[in-house]
Amino acid sequence: MDILIRNGNVMDGSGNPWFRADVGISGEKIVCLGRVEAVQARRVIDAQGLMVCPGFIDVHAHSDPIFTLNADDQCRYLEGRIRQGITTEIIGNCGKSLGPLKPENVDFVKGTFWQSPEGVAWDWSTVGEYLKRLETQGVALNVGTLAAHGTIRIAVMGMNAAVPSEEQLREMKRLVQEALDEGAFGLSCGLIYPPGMYTTTFELMELARVAASKGRIFTSHIRGSSETLLPAVKEIIRIGEETGVAVQHSHHEAVGKDHWWKIEETLRLEESARDRGVSITYDVFPYVAANTNMTAIFPPWSLEGGIQKLMERLRAPEIRGRIESDIEESIPGWPPWIPGCWAHNIVEAVGWDNIRVYHVGSEKHKSLIGKSIQEISGIFAKKPFEAVAELMLEADGVASCYVFGVSGDLSTDEPNRELIRHPLGAISTDASDFGKGKPHPAAYGTYPRVIGRLARDEKVIPVQEAVRKMTSWPAQIMGIRDRGWIREGMFADIVLLDLPRINDNATYDKPRQFPDGVEFVLINGKIIIERGEYHRSLPGKVLRW
To answer: How far is CA 290 from CA 80, 354, 366, in A?
Structure first.
């Protein structure tokens, strides 16, 4: 036996209370669970007083470019994730992934990853080639990917808003099939971003049928989380009902105080769908701010053709005026793919004062990081839209923001807690640190925040239920069969927590702060975090469905 974890309080991921047990590991696998007597082990970890649970599985991550980097850079960018106990993540979310790539469309795909670190090669073609690249060079934690609708649409149509021809739709279906055959866990879409925002329900259903035929999941960043939240949820339910695909509602949220009440109704809709046999689940992050590209505040028509086309439109006074008018006056409507219709006006939902810059591509404007658009408006002595337009032009379209007012605000997070309580919800981060600007604190504190603050301290959910939502439940949702539980025969992805001490320290102002209380992290039987020390290595595996 290689490692014996002695006398721990095992919370096995099932949702049951903890039990006292030893956990034995040989190689990459858990080989015994219970009272282990008279066994020689190369390493014994005394877990007296510690909670022993499965490694956390983040079903909604965006670290796609990071995994292509060398060992030093991977370990640096992913340290905050590993130190909070994440041992597995699913990438390719929100309709964006690093494959398939075509040389003529690489710049469009780069534009969807608005904070990519330096050093990404971008020299593969298919999802399979991307995964093989990761496998060959090694990965810092376990990673699986989804096939991404937006990237596939770009490969076939570029950043075109048109309805695909029959031939184009057939090619998209072929690329989805190819990605699934190469190991993708399902199909994702991002319907507030181009090109996903231009698609009809029919297009999504045709592609979802391919995923359904392979028993894979369909995940969706839905079209709108404010004015059109309810029809957007009904749309993904319809997709599941008519195609038979299992549906995952990505980072379930309600954006803007006027829409928080809709959370209860969305949960009722999803429960009712399950009663009819529709497999629908969701994930949620424990914060009241989301992070996104600044382009998300712009109307769909202004984004057609990509970032550089938006820059051209912002330089043309008449078109710029039309963009401003849409942002300031447009009320979202349905169906959103009709020209001139817009499903999710973030400014209308939360106001300029709840949108804060956290990354900008212009050195001149680095001092604006952390400030709201309303504050920047005062600094520039311009209207908020004009301040954003100037910022975007000088940064060549490279800017990202926090959006506050997501399922709560800084005075109350009760709407977010309602989502965390519900048994259908898995915990996710929807965040990564690419070394630029201020990352979302979720990249450093999500899982300790739920276990420590929300479960242990405030009793929003029991600790064992929090662990289930981070381990076995996301594994079941994604079809990961050999991780997510402390059981014999499972891969030894294990986290040892000091429950009284566990605490998230990351804040919006100072996000790069590691949590307390995560004492050990093991990935595939290798000790990576040990009493605060990070053993930098590449112990992860590339997962295929």
So the answer is: 18, 11, 20
Per-residue model confidence (pLDDT) at position 487: 98
What tokens appear for 488 in the block? Answer: 């014999």
N- to C-terminal Cα distance for the chain? 29
Q: What are phi and psi of 247, to 5 degrees?
A: -115, 135
Model-level pTM? 0.97
- Cα 26 to Cα 3, 4, 35, 519, 522: the distances in Å are 7, 9, 16, 21, 13
DSSP 3-state percent helix, strand, coil across the chain (nearest 5): 40, 20, 40
* Separation of alpha carbons 351 and 229, rounded Å: 18
Indicate whether 136 pLDDT > 80: yes
Residues 195/201/204/208 CA torsion (nearest 10 deg): 160
233: in domain: yes
CA–CA distance, 126 with 145 (Å, rounded to integer): 12
Domain of residue 265, residue span: 53-288+406-481+488-501+510-534
Do 421 and 382 belong together in one domain? Answer: no
Phi-psi region of 231 (alpha: psi -120 to 50; beta: other; left: phi over 0): alpha
Mean pLDDT of the chain: 97
Residue 346 is assigned to a structural domain of this protein: yes
Contacts of 39 (CB under 8 A, 6+ apart): 1, 4, 24, 32
Same domain, 217 and 80: yes
**Pair of tokens at residue 335:** 């169906």
Residues 258 and 367 in one domain: no
Tell me: do 432 and 386 sit in the same domain: no
DSSP 200-242: -HHHHHHHHHHHHHTT-EEEEE-S-SSTTHHHHHHHHHHHHHH
Residues 258 and 346 in one domain: no
